[in-house]
Amino acid sequence: MALYIRAFGDTPVSGIGGHQAGAFRDLLLALPATLGKGKSSLTLQQEAQRAKSNGLPTMSNKSVKNHMLRLSALWNQLVQREMVAKNPWSGWHFESAPKIVRRSWTPQELALLASASWHSALVPEPTFRLVTLIAAYGWAKSAPYGKKTCKPSRGFPASKQLGF
To answer: Which residues 6+ apart lie within 8 Å of 103 measured at CB?
Structure first.
């Protein structure tokens, strides 16, 4: 709500309809992805113009959808309390595609993980090996550029996958 107020001012909720929700959605899609990461004295409209003129990456559909969903949840409460007639934040569609294509570990990667040397005095080597194997066979998936992610691979805990 604070972002909407920053963009369009503090207006009565009864005066916010589909037109305003659409304008807010369009503004969010034009804002730089780094909005809020630093201090700025620019208005949101100026931030959108700066992003356009400098060719900066803008907010993702997923981020915009999350903002809209939060407002929709708030408006659902207002509808139930009969403070507004309908929810202008619901019914919007957002195209979203996963940014990271995940893949399973290759046998070579698993062998490399299992045979890697360990040089830490804080964590014992057996603990390192156990955690590495549980992650590799359980929930950690390999992603592009060497990034590793921790997502359940089959919808159940690693302990069940390893037979614990």
So the answer is: 141, 142, 143
3-class DSSP string for the chain? CHHHHHHHCCCCHHHCCHHHHHHHHHHHHHCECCCCCCCCCCCHHHHHHHHHHHCCCECCHHHHHHHHHHHHHHHHHHHHCCCCCCCCCCCCCCCCCCCCCCECCCHHHHHHHHHCCCCCCCCCHHHHHHHHHHHHHCCEEECHHHCEEECCCCCCCHHHHCCC
User: pLDDT tens, 11-47?
Assistant: 899 899 999 999 999 999 999 988 877 787 888 899 9
pTM (global) more than 0.70:
no
Tokens 């992003």 belong to residue: 51
pLDDT tens across 61-79, in order?
888 999 999 999 999 999 9
Instruction: Calculate Rg over the CA atoms of the chain.
Output: 23
